[in-house]
Amino acid sequence: MKPVSKPVKYLGLFVLLLGPIITFYLISRGEHRFIDLDYFGPREAIVQSDGSVDTLYHSIPSFRLVNQFGDTVTEAIMDGKIVVADFFFSTCPTICPAMSRNMSELQLQLDEPHFHMVKLVSHTVNPVYDTPSVLLAYGEKHDADFDRWTFLTGDKEQIYRLGVEGYMLPAQEDALAPGGFLHSEMFVLIDTKGHIRGYYDGTQLIEMRRLINDIKILIKQLKEA
Question: Are strands 171-173 and 64-67 parallel, antiparallel or unpaired?
Fold first, then answer.
């Protein structure tokens, strides 16, 4: 057998060492092509007349609330939008300040043209105190771009029902909770069809990076659809 020349040996070693790096690069570059986000909430199988089966996913129900300008707002503000939603109250002494700072930072991170379809929506769990004027001041304090970040108040029972039945998050008065209200620290990612696609700890910056990555996945899927 003819001995293998040194150049061929070095080439083989080079390919052996570089191969995994190239593979990792190609996979990471195309990660959004292979990753899909889960759907959260109850789902129902619908049998069509031709025998095929479609899945009906949970979606955010209709609502009628009021924004920081006193304007009536319905679920229509979410139509065709990717939405990041949360629940808070302006006098919250614990997790809300961190959540609002991170939502403000998220707004800055999404301040690019290809994120134009992303909307931020914050619901107060203390609508008696958090009137439109209070929410307006709160939003200004956190540098909110009101074209992209909406604050909602309104009927208390409707907000609590929307939290529990829509976003599947706790939202209620609770005398034992700090500040007198119970709500979640989670940010909720909603796709353009109103389906819940992810939950993220709104007090953690590392979770904001995961959220932005998942938003990119949804945008990429829309472009490829």
Answer: unpaired
Nearest to 124 by CA among 94, 86, 98: 86
DSSP state of 45: E
Q: What is the pLDDT along the chain (225 residues), one digit of tens a residue?
A: 455 555 444 444 443 344 444 433 333 444 444 578 999 999 888 888 777 788 999 999 999 999 999 999 999 999 999 999 999 999 999 999 999 999 999 999 999 998 999 999 999 999 999 999 999 999 999 999 999 999 999 999 999 999 999 999 999 999 888 899 999 999 999 999 999 999 999 999 999 999 999 999 999 999 887
Q: How far apart are the C-alpha atoms of 35 and 55, rounded to whole Å? A: 19
**Is the separation of the CB atoms in 60 and 190 below 8 Å?**
yes
Q: Which domains does the chain have, with CATH numbers?
A: 43-224 (3.40.30.10)
Helix, strand, coil content of the chain in percent (nearest 5) = 40, 25, 35
